[in-house]
Amino acid sequence: MQEKEMFDLTIIGGGPAGLYSTFYAGMRDLKVKLVEYNKELGGKILFYPEKIIWDVGGMPPTTGRTLINQLVEQATTFNPTICLNEHIVRMVREPDNTYTLFNEQGKAHYTRAVMLASGHGIPVMQKLEIEGADRYEVSNLHYTVTQMDIFANKRVLISGGGNAAVDWANELANISKEVVVCHRRDEFGGHEKNVEQMKSVTKIHTPYQIKELHGVGSAIEAVTLAHCDTGEQRQIEVDAVIVNHGMKLDGCFLIEAGLALEEDGFLRVSACMETSQPGIFAAGDVTRHEGKLQLISGAFVEGATAVNGVKQFLDPKADKQAYVSSHNEKFKKKNEQLKQEKQAQLMN
Ligand SMILES: Cc1cc2nc3c(=O)[nH]c(=O)nc-3n(C[C@H](O)[C@H](O)[C@H](O)COP(=O)(O)OP(=O)(O)OC[C@H]3O[C@@H](n4cnc5c(N)ncnc54)[C@H](O)[C@@H]3O)c2cc1C
User: Fold this and answer.
1) Residue of 35, 44, 163, 307 best suited for mutating to test ligand 1, as the one with most atoms within 8 Å of CB
2) So where does FAD get bound?
């Protein structure tokens, strides 16, 4: 029988919100477990590991990969329990007001409080609805860009008009032989400046969509685009195709748990990031509230606020927030260690 180990807090989702909350929960002496669906931590940043991030406070321009590594290092400061490759699909409130969370295989996690840091749910890329397209996925049909240099000196077609498609088009224009963008609408998502830049450095076809892929073996060599209104067709030769048609979101378990949602399907939360169910808190992209900052910095603030909410939920007499880290006794030994490491570095 599975051993029933009870945690103070179980965090669902290992993106920026979940990772920072894991660290902060350690600062608040909570016994914490982090459960992530992917086999790797990092959340959405895993979609842009090579992109440079500029807008996280106090952090000089840093790649997504470096930020993930730093977040993971910080999250593991207090030795939390981390479970990867587990999709939480059900939350049950027990008569003693604790929660049991079940993963897809039926494994249970026992916890006194829950934090939903599940972003937009399990992202499932919208695939091309063209028969046989999947055979090119092993070679030059991509649904995300995790490594820029594989597109160096290539003729790349990007299909899609969202934020990510615009960003990738601009970045690839610096290294690829040619970047062509097709989109079924004339308008593109993302910052106006980025869209303008994309228009000046790539060839754009709107309103067009991919109608046919032509390949030999497992590689696409050309693509037929069709005009969305007239059906007029044009063929272009390519070395790689990137499709970014958005993601299907799996938010079903939030609905099944009976949590109050805003109209757009995201979680309604109180000022201390508690959901409509006592003991279930939330942080990051999964929440909506007035003043929402849907950025990594916003996820950090919401994470710390939610952990403080959890602490007071479990112990109403607890301080409202953790004692500042610069003067926190918890770090005394670690600070000594850091000083010694720095001195040793200077000596070498
Ligand atoms: C292309 C792109 C570029 C961006 N650039 C920037 C930028 O420059 N600066 C910036 O501040 N922000 C940027 N963002 C936004 C930023 O990435 C998000 O705001 C941030 O990742 C939100 O963090 P999160 O932890 O709330 O959610 P996520 O990062 O989405 O993480 C949620 C995690 O929860 C997991 N999960 C979900 N449901 C379950 C479940 N049921 N069971 C187990 N695990 C589950 C998911 O697998 C995922 O790992 C960008 C976003 C994109 C898409």
Assistant:
1) 44
2) 36, 44, 48, 88, 123, 285, 326
